[in-house]
Write a structure and sequence with these properties.
Elements lengths: L1 H16 L3 H20 L5 H15 L1 H15 L12 H26 L9 H23 L5
Helix pairs in contact: 2-3, 2-4, 2-5, 4-6, 5-6
Length: 151
């Protein structure tokens, strides 16, 4: 059954996100979320785990917003390749930065997981990196909203 659900989701993604630039931005963000959640599996310190789970949940809430931006961008400027449309270049740049920031957030969580002994400041470094992801998604939404829709 999971195979058919995945196939249906893939067709839905193709229809809503295309197969180009916007699909890649969306999928990259989801891979970053998956990576962050994989890092959580190895955290043994209960207090640190609780902090990281809270951050992970906050970041997971962004997935819907990222999808909405990518779907709208695909509607306005359909992409089946890797060419960045000039009018939405800022939107793409913000999504790309968010994907990079999410990867560094997962990396910071992994470094904490590997720390020996108690972590004196908890997940503060991870939270700081996660905040940049939120800012970049908000920037992508703002840039998309500022861009006039073509008639």
């Amino acid at each position: 059954m999971a195979f058919f659900a995945a196939a249906r989701q893939g067709r839905k993604d193709d229809a809503e996100l295309g197969k180009g630039l916007w699909r890649r931005a969306h999928d990259r963000f989801l891979r970053g979320l998956d990576r962050f959640h994989q890092v959580l599996e190895g955290v043994e310190d209960d207090a640190l785990y609780a902090e990281l789970v809270e951050i992970a949940n906050d970041l997971a809430g962004l997935a819907v917003r990222v999808r909405m931006v990518c779907v709208e961008a695909q509607l306005r400027s359909p992409s089946d390749g890797l060419d960045i449309p000039g009018a939405l270049a800022g939107v793409h740049r913000s999504l790309s930065k968010a994907g990079n920031s999410l990867a560094t957030t997962a990396e910071a969580a992994a470094m904490l997981r590997l720390a020996v002994g108690p972590v004196p400041v908890g997940a503060a470094s991870v939270r700081r990196r996660a905040e940049s992801v939120f800012e970049q998604i908000a920037d992508a939404e703002r840039r998309l909203a500022e861009q006039p829709q073509e008639s």
